[in-house]
Amino acid sequence: MRNLYKNALGISAFTASATPAFAGIDEQVNEAFAAFTGPFVSFIFAPIPGTAFPWIVMWLVIAATVFTLYFGFVQLRFFKHSISLVKGDYSDPNDAGEVSHFQALATALSGTVGLGNIAGVAVAVGIGGPGATFWMILAGLLGMASKFTECTLGVKYRNEYEDGTVSGGPMYYISKGFAEKGLPGGKFLAVLFAIFCILGALGGGNMFQANQAHAQISGIVGDFPGWITGIVFAAVVFIVIVGGVKSIARVTEKVVPFMGIMYVAAALVILLVNFDQIGWAFGQIFAGAFTGLGVAGGMVGALIQGFKRAAFSNEAGVGSAAIAHSAVKTKEPITEGFVSLLEPFIDTVVICTMTALVITISGQLIVDPATGNYAIEAGKIATVGGTSGVALTSAAFASAFSWFPYILAIAVILFAFSTMISWSYYGLKAWTYLFGESKNSELTFKIIFCVFIVIGAAASLGPVIDFSDAAIFAMAVVNITGLYFLMSVVKAEFDSYKERLASGEIKKFEH
Amino acid sequence: MTTTLVVGLDGQGSGDRALAYAKRMAGLIGKCELLIVYVIEWSPYSFQTAEENAQRHKRREEEIATAMERIIDPAIKSLKDDGVKAKGMVRHGDVADTLNAISVEANADQIIVSRSSEGGFAKRIFGSSTANLVMSASVPVTVVG
To answer: Which of A488, A463, A116 is nearest to A320 (CA)?
Structure first.
């Protein structure tokens, strides 16, 4: 989700926010870092030989397909049951006061819904055409099975401490699950995951967010040094994660869903006003999915863009959601898996599709009158005003509501903030897995995290960002490897749950 | 047959009035047991950070222990001292819904609560738990002024 708007807003966003004082140091850091991390980044994002398709995207899609088939289309057959769980139909009233399924879902969603849904989709549609939406929806639907698998394991193998707190996530299920099955290498994979998770948290979950928030702010109030934004953000994050001032986080956690709902509502209004064009837009999506409608790369181009952005947006298979979901106190780990499978649905199938439809209907994509296909400029579809990424989404919404860009800018800043808070937790859990759960160890990570916010907002550290994004996807390499070995554990839980649900042993509570 | 009265406390002075009234009623009825309940306002649909979620179980235990110690235990002690049979419990949830659910479950004959302690602006926005209880309860409710 984080990596995409780099293309959207361009590396220029980083350069623009670099202060002259930092420039000399930046260049040196960039060069040294790029030389050091380049091979790793190129490896993660390398295309499959003979194609333009990055293998990491293929890795995520194949895993999602395997889990979908292995669990017999759980995302379709248990969709209604998942909603029932979120509504609390199966929650024991005596457990009131514990984290509810709804709260776990909302927390995990606030970590994934964000810039990927706004900017990433615009990039996908801008390059792959409306047809990319079809592949994005398909990838989102398949990704639901990956989330189901990882979040069930997250709860099943979490650590519960004597003081009542919990820690969970891929590092715990990989090490404990492998040991339970007598498989070697669990500890090694868990440590590898934790390292990638820390790097991903500092980069994609932090520096990149700070950078994009600064780009948005300076877009409205005019250019000013990035470190100012960085210090303000770092101070607020510091107050929340170190000072324990939960009220700020709570306000954000309330405003972010509100922003999400408002975004979808605005999209729905635009679609309703243009309801006569919805049929046409879906026609474009389906036709484009298989013919490409003349976009660069044709059908394959649309497919790559759709799959890529969906995977980047909903993080299914990355393992981050498993950390967020493991806090739920439930007797049945599998129920958390059911709840989590709604995330890719909400994130990708609903919100991303809304964005894509609005962009398609808004007429921002220029059609070549001679051929009836989209006009191509430099490998991208030509747009009114030459916009792409956040700017394209903003322009599409502005064509209906002129004031929308301001709301969108506020949303981007808040989404960036909530993503930082979420990833500070994911990174912290990986950190404490490696260095122990002591107050000092936690404080060390939190301070490092805040320092990276300032660096992220101030400097133009393109290669560092590349590396951090690669680290997030490297998490998926380790996590999915673990999931393949442990999916039989989930299957056993799943079969037992299905049996007890059918026999009436698991039943709804009167509320 | 024993008569069961549920008493909802709010941790404030007004709760003491409800308790005093219930004590008097118990004396008049004779064979009567009081169920003293304190409900911690909590919604399963609120939004929390991942860290808050991870600590939730611990916090819940702490909240229950604190409410027991500060509100329920002193109330039970004062009732026992006066020879009234009483049990106490702390629950999380919506105050009106939870008090009603507990009363139905305990087969209670009456719920005794004090007049709402909220006032003014907050009451206009959020309504009052007492008013909600009176309007939705499946058991007779006595509101002590």
So the answer is: A116
d(CA A81, CA A335): 9
Distances from the Cα of A99 to the Cα of A114, B8, B69, angstroms: 23, 25, 23
Instruction: Yes or no: say if A365 and A278 are a contact pair by the CB < 8 Å rule.
Output: no
This prediction has a pTM of 0.87
Of A121, A146, A80, A110, the residue nearest A349 (C-alpha): A121
Q: How far is B141 from chain A (nearest CA, A)?
A: 20
How many CA atoms are closer than 13 Å to the CA of A59, on its beta-carbon side? 23
Whether the pLDDT of residue A139 is over 50: the answer is yes
Largest CA distance in chain A: 71
Residue of B47, B52, B99, B100 to mutate, interface with A, max A Cβ within 10 Å: B47
pLDDT, tens digit, for every residue of A359-404? 999 988 888 877 777 887 777 888 887 777 778 888 899 888 888 8
**Percent helix, strand and coil across chain B, each rounded to 5?**
50, 25, 25
Strands (E), chain B: 3-9, 32-41, 85-93, 110-114, 141-144
Residues of A in contact with B46 (CB under 8 A): 103
Residues of A in contact with B104 (CB under 8 A): none
Q: Is A229 on the interface with B (CB under 8 A)?
A: no
ipTM entry: 0.84
pLDDT higher than threshold 80 for residue A469: no
**Which residue of A lies nearest to B51 if distances are taken between CA atoms?**
A425
β strands within B57-140, DSSP E: 85-93, 110-114
Query: Which chain A residue's Cα is nearest to B59?
Result: A164
List, for residues B95-141, the tens digit of each pLDDT value. Answer: 889 999 999 999 999 999 887 655 556 555 555 778 888 888 899 99
Residue in chain A nearest B44 by alpha carbon: A100
Give yes or no for a contact between A326 and A158, defined as CB atoms under 8 angstroms apart: yes
Burial (CB count within 10 angstroms: exposed 0-12, middle 13-18, buried 19+), residue A372: exposed
* Residues of chain B that touch chain A, judged by Cβ-Cβ distance less than 8 Å: 40, 42, 44-58, 60-61, 63-64, 91-93, 97-98, 101
pLDDT tens string A223-233:
788 888 899 99
